[in-house]
UniProtKB/TrEMBL annotation:
<dbReference type="GO" id="GO:0032259">
    <property type="term" value="P:methylation"/>
</dbReference>
<keyword id="KW-0949">S-adenosyl-L-methionine</keyword>
<dbReference type="InterPro" id="IPR013675">
    <property type="entry name" value="Mtase_sm_N"/>
</dbReference>
<protein>
    <recommendedName>
        <fullName>Ribosomal RNA small subunit methyltransferase C</fullName>
        <ecNumber>2.1.1.172</ecNumber>
    </recommendedName>
</protein>
<dbReference type="InterPro" id="IPR046977">
    <property type="entry name" value="RsmC/RlmG"/>
</dbReference>
<dbReference type="InterPro" id="IPR023543">
    <property type="entry name" value="rRNA_ssu_MeTfrase_C"/>
</dbReference>
<comment type="function">
    <text>Specifically methylates the guanine in position 1207 of 16S rRNA in the 30S particle.</text>
</comment>
<keyword id="KW-0698">rRNA processing</keyword>
<keyword id="KW-0489">Methyltransferase</keyword>
<dbReference type="InterPro" id="IPR007848">
    <property type="entry name" value="Small_mtfrase_dom"/>
</dbReference>
<keyword id="KW-0808">Transferase</keyword>
<dbReference type="InterPro" id="IPR029063">
    <property type="entry name" value="SAM-dependent_MTases_sf"/>
</dbReference>
<dbReference type="GO" id="GO:0008168">
    <property type="term" value="F:methyltransferase activity"/>
</dbReference>
<feature type="domain" description="Methyltransferase small">
    <location>
        <begin position="183"/>
        <end position="348"/>
    </location>
</feature>
<feature type="domain" description="Methyltransferase small N-terminal">
    <location>
        <begin position="17"/>
        <end position="175"/>
    </location>
</feature>
<comment type="subunit">
    <text>Monomer.</text>
</comment>
<keyword id="KW-0963">Cytoplasm</keyword>
Amino acid sequence: MPALIFYGSHAVLTNPSQVIIRNQETLSQHKVLVLNHEADSLPKALLDVAQSVDALALDYHHYLHLAPQANAKLRCYFGHQLPHQDKYDTVIVYFPKAKPLAPYLFNLAAQHLVADGQLLVVGENKGGVKSLVKLLPKYFATGIKLDNARHCLLFGSSLIDTAPEIKLSDWTSQYQLATPQGNITICNLVGVFSEKHLDQGTELLLSHLPTLSGRVLDFGCGAGVIAAALLKAQPTLSLECIDINAMALASCELTLAANGMTAKVYPSDGLAQTSGKFDGIISNPPFHDGLASTTSIAQSFVADSAKQLQSKGIWQIVANRHLPYSDTIAAEFGQLTVPAENNKYKLYYFQQA
């Protein structure tokens, strides 16, 4: 996670945001759009100089951080696109951690810029922003380095030609995936993790999929691999798919449509935006190694799952075998079953009394 500090009277800002503040005079009285912003208050801080600011988060955590600060001059959105066609004098793009997402963000920026409008792209040196000049599409002027500070680079450009309309199909890779439940079609948008084959963890989970019924939750649905396999095997399920990534949610919707399936797909911070109890909770949780925060996220997920599991409800996840799930699960559920494992992953199963 980027370093956070206080900047003047403003709330905590990340390093890339501090670099934008250093150059905020270029935004004087501009209508500004901020794309892919981080979990800080940069869009609100820009109101010191800008006429108005709109902010589109592709990460639901980042949206939830900023949304309470919305006002007449600051509008906050979550998703892979804006719900309107408004134009802006300046669009600021935070260079994405998933580099293949960058050209999509530039295309989106161009859709919302006035002619000759200003594009600013900021990112950490180690995050791929150095390749900005090569990545910028032809409808933008050659990128110029404007600042280099706090281990970040800021580039500037302007819109010099009409950009193509955004069609999600142009940004989607579609392929067939063999699963224990049969072949399914996967639609994967840029920036969403995909290997075009079943990863070991998901394969272990799907190879030992329990028989479910009623209302089932797919936590961290990604591109919809588990969701589509579930519905292929058990088409009568009332399935809900949640994630924090806008591109993942859009991918999941495309995957379900490509397979003629339906489910409720929506963003949720953990289980916070879900409601009621589930007859089943299935997941290959998006928790990674080496980050202290992932342990607390995992603990919250397990604790919330225990509260939201219906009587006789089934809970099953797959996880890296060396991660400390066993104690957490045992503490919340009171018992623990490992129906299958391999040298890298363990399957954890629980059925409510």
